[in-house]
Amino acid sequence: MTGLERWHHVMREGDMNTLYDLLHPDCVFLSPVVHTPQVGRDITYAYLRAANKALSEDFQYVREVTQENHAILEFTVMVDGVFVNGVDMITFEGDQIIEFKVMVRPLKAVNAVWKQMAEMLESLKKAG
Length: 128
Hints:
The protein has one domain: Nuclear Transport Factor 2, Chain: A (Roll), CATH 3.10.450.50. It has helices at 3-13, 16-22, 41-54, 107-127, and strands at residues 23-30, 38-39, 60-67, 70-79, 82-93, 96-105. The chain is 41% helix and 39% strand. The chain is built from 4 helices and 6 strands; from the N terminus they run H-H-E-E-H-E-E-E-E-H. By secondary structure, the protein is α+β, with helices and mostly antiparallel strands. Strands 2-1-6-5-4-3 form a 6-stranded mixed sheet. The radius of gyration is 14 Å and the shape is globular. The mean pLDDT is 89.
């Protein structure tokens, strides 16, 4: 199974164990709501795990463009009644994700995503 196929499995099944293994130890996560790159498997895992929980309702990929070790996956989701349109830009090294960049539009959607993610990250922190 390719890295991209494993990513789709994670999204379909919510398989967080596969997600952790899919991330390269030096993975970089670039968020639309955090100004600095987040470096490392653990922090990337925390953000993607929170996003999976916070944005799971009605989430769907609507377009996929791939070239060599890159994938651009356009998605839609509703967050607190706000329509969110965005892209996950994923770069693979071998079968692991080395870079994960999320871009979201419109501005109202960025604010809704920021709120949901902050709440989810806080609850995951408390849960340990």
